[in-house]
Amino acid sequence: MRNYDYTKKWEELLTPQIVGYLTTIHEYKGEQRLIASRHADVLHDLVEVARIQSTESSNKIEGIYTSDERLRKIVLDKTMPRSRNEREIAGYRDVLNTIHENFDHIPIRTTFILQLHRDLYKFENGRVGGAFKSVDNIIEEKNVEGVSSIRFQPVAAWETSASVDKLCEAYYDVINKTNADPLLIIPMFILDFLCIHPFRDGNGRMSRLLTLLLLYQSEYMVGRYISIEKLIEKTKGSYYEALQDSSRLWHEEENDYAPFVAYLLGVIAAAYREFFERTRLIEEKATAKPDRVAEAIKEQIGTITKSEIMQKVPGVSQTTIQRTLTELTKQGRIKKIGNGRYTKYTWNWENEQ
Description:
One of its GO terms (molecular function) is ATP binding. This protein is mostly helical.
């Protein structure tokens, strides 16, 4: 059986290109945390869009489609799936939601990987999900003439369960016993998972779900707001090329992880760049919202209540309004009259003189 020990292998990956990705992503991680904490109330739309795109793209890579309208309804849980494709899409949706909501409580263990795979096929009849392959499988590719050939021979069915056990143990060993950067170990784990190819079906989608799970557990949360799966789909050619390069001589334990690690780190860095591009607009709008609240009070003859302010500045959250009212009061720009539900505000014109 293959040795999945990562404790030394990760050191071979510290090339200038990969170290550059690590440095960039570490910087992005800190900046994202600040933005997410400041604007948690307005990032909801990004989360919803990412969920839809992730579900669509991860399934599309495997040739699983439905219409845009049906996809949105399924992801938002507003309809029941009607076809096999839609049942698999609904299963992906549920596992993605499980990871979003419970990532801190899902150990990287064989039992839990099987449970996630079971839920991936929860809408299917029969025992498709939740069990490792019972017969050997192969990874094929077709040339331009449509002729199939074996690209990779995964681990045999009889040693699959033990291989996944060893893989999970190796992950925890290197994370807990060395100073290896999780960003190096996660792609190595995913590559080995794909080379084991433990399931009859769903290996690619499971690998992408596990990628999110491992990133979240290491506090790299960009996949919550930007679909990593969509970025992989858009660069599918490079994805398969990196996967092929890094799986060559895998059974002989002489494979080079660097191509796949560099590819996945590039995807993660691209996700962060897209996050900052999208939130730049949110930041600009968020900066302008307090000014809109101030103008609503300034233009009001007499006093105005918070509920009246909400009506005058649609699109500004109650949290932002309250924060602005508190700040304007501290600055002396407005006067607060009364308390509780009867609180009113008026512009402090004396302060303008």
